[in-house]
Structures are given as C-alpha cells and as structure tokens.
Design goal:
six-stranded mixed beta sheet; 434 Repressor (Amino-terminal Domain); Endonuclease, Chain A; alpha/beta; 12 helices; about 50% helix; 6 strands; 2 domains
C-alpha cells in the first residue's frame, strides 16, 4: 500500500478480504488482468483497484467476474452478498464530518485487527486517552476549530476505545517515550487523570504498556509514530500505518512491516512492565 487515498471508504477489512479472493480466483482460472478487464469492458486499472480494495465492489462487476472465472451459482451468490455487506458504511461513517476521509480506513483496520502494536513518541495513544486529554490534544492540532468540531472528534476517539471492552477485544501493545509523560497536555489535573488511566489499563491482560525512559538514550524507534495491525483472516497481510505532518502511509510489503515490527520489539526491551508502572506512579505524584 502507499499514501492514503481520499476515496478510501469503509468497511475496508472485508473489502480487502474479498479483493484478495477475487485476485486468487482470477489467477486460479488462468485469467490475466486484461482478460478480466475485457469481461467488464473497463480498464485494467479498474481490476487492479478492485483487487486492492481501493474502490467499492459493485455487485454486477463481481457477478460478471466470477462467471468469467468459472464460479458456480451458489458461490457467486454468496460472494455478491458479502460484497454488498462490504459496501455498507461502518459506524464511523456518521463521523465523516469530523475526520479526514482517509482516516476511515484506519478506523476500519483498527476495528478489525486481532493485534495492535503502536509506538508513540509525543502523546498517549488515542485508544488510551481520557476525554479531557483527548480534547486538549485535538485542540492543539486544530487551533481554529470550533467547540462543536472538537466535541465530534473527541466523541469519535472515545467510541473507538470501545473495541478494548469487547468480549473478543484485540490485544494492544503500546510503546511510548517518557517524553509523553512530561508533555503537560491540558494541565496538571488532566495529566494526573491520564496517568491514572494508564495505570489502570496496564493491569488488563490484553493490554501491555512499555515506556522507554530517557536513560535509554538513542534507539531504533526515534521516528514517527506508527501502528501495526495483524488480522485473524489469512487473506489479509500485516499492515503498518504511519502518519507524517502532511501525509499518511499504509505499508504491507513484508520488508517494511518486518522493520517496524522489529523496531517495536527492540524498543519494548529497553524497559519492563514493572519499570514502566514505577515511572507512571512517580510522574503521577509530580502532577498532584
């Protein structure tokens, strides 16, 4: 994957699965991209985008392609039903007024992942932020935004956190820099509440929290924040998302994913759960 496209819509995860299945069926039938394009009377680029989940799966397109690939009627009907499901907007669609369109892809991946591993050098990761901390962070990034706009963004951020309370909640492994704890976001009271929240969640079985201390010095992860996604579905590759000042990227090439995964692991080894909790407790007292 490459730089996020503004036209990406959700639910991305199911569409990714179906796009890969379409590709597998095409290859299994010995059909080229050109063969598939001729069947639909479209350009090969359209077929590529269908297989890469960059556009919605039109039921008529799906049906014609599967017929071309020699699929049976039952398989075609089941695939078309799934395509229609994949085209339905996710719950986050109602927040399209509050976030960039490309971010819906991130929320979809986050909601569908089995494992999340994040690195945050500047702020507490969004899934663990308190309402007041989230408001202060978003206010800093949107200085000209109205209170209504900020409230909508905070609401979305808090709703995203509900995935950690599901019965089938994903595992979340967060690595943060100690600098995050010293950056006074929203004032001492807000920081104290935020640190208490981190102490609480660090005791949950499905959440790991490692804080890299200043004493660790220079290390491999001193870079932009990133999130690693792993899914249960075998059709989906591991994906890494990284956000820069003026762009965001989704990476699924193995070399890119492995380098981020290794960096996350190396950073986690620079501390321990016990040392991280001790640091949180020490900083919480400083904000009393």
């Amino acid at each position: 994957m490459s730089e996020a496209r503004s036209g990406t819509s959700a639910p991305t995860v199911l569409r990714m699965i179906l796009g890969r299945r379409l590709q597998e069926m095409r290859l299994g039938a010995g059909a080229s991209l050109e063969d598939a394009a001729r069947a639909l009377r479209v350009k090969t680029l359209t077929i590529r985008r269908l297989e890469k989940a960059e556009v919605a799966l039109k039921p008529l397109y799906v049906e014609k392609l599967l017929e071309t690939f020699g699929a049976g009627r039952q398989e075609i009907d089941e695939f078309v039903d799934l395509a229609e499901q994949a085209n339905k907007p996710g719950w986050w669609h109602s927040y399209r007024d509050a976030v960039p369109s490309w971010f819906t892809a991130y929320v979809s991946l986050e909601a569908g992942a089995r494992t999340l591993r994040t690195y945050e050098p500047q702020y507490v990761t969004g899934l663990l932020q308190t309402p007041d901390y989230a408001h202060a962070v978003l206010r800093g990034g949107l200085p000209n935004g109205t209170e209504d706009e900020l409230a909508r963004r905070v609401e979305l951020r808090l709703r995203r956190q509900s995935l950690l309370e599901r019965e089938d909640a994903p595992t979340l492994w967060v690595v943060m820099e100690e600098a995050v704890l010293h950056r006074v976001v929203g004032g001492p009271h807000v920081m104290r509440q935020q640190l208490e929240r981190l102490l609480d969640v660090s005791e949950l079985a499905h959440i790991s929290l490692d804080i890299v201390p200043f004493t660790a010095g220079a290390h491999v992860g001193a870079c932009a924040p990133f999130t690693y996604f792993r899914f249960e579905e075998p059709e989906l590759p591991d994906i890494v998302y990284s956000e820069l000042l003026s762009a965001s990227v989704y990476l699924d090439q193995r070399a890119d994913v492995v380098s981020h995964l290794e960096a996350h692991t190396r950073m986690s080894l620079l501390t321990s759960s016990e040392d991280s909790r001790a640091l949180l407790n020490r900083m919480r007292k400083e904000y009393s």
